[in-house]
Design goal:
single chain, alpha+beta, two-stranded antiparallel sheet, 11% strand
Amino acid sequence: MNVDEFDIDALIGAGLSYDDEQGHSEDFVAVTRYGGALWEVKWLSCNATYAWHVDCALWQKERALYLSEEMRMEEIQELLEQGVEVFKTIKS
């Protein structure tokens, strides 16, 4: 889904808040594939590859940072060729 297709009215209808004048919410945030979060919230961190809750397990944050900022392309390519889903969701 593209951000311009995002149905904010459905979220508001479900009880989440959204400040139309400021164009943001503390209840949710839209994260785009190439541009990151559309607005900042205190509870979310993100980089170009992953987004994570600030209270997530430390190992999950470290894994996201390693995969997206430290791992070399050659390593990623090797793993992909072995059938490893390098960038799958990091979850407990």
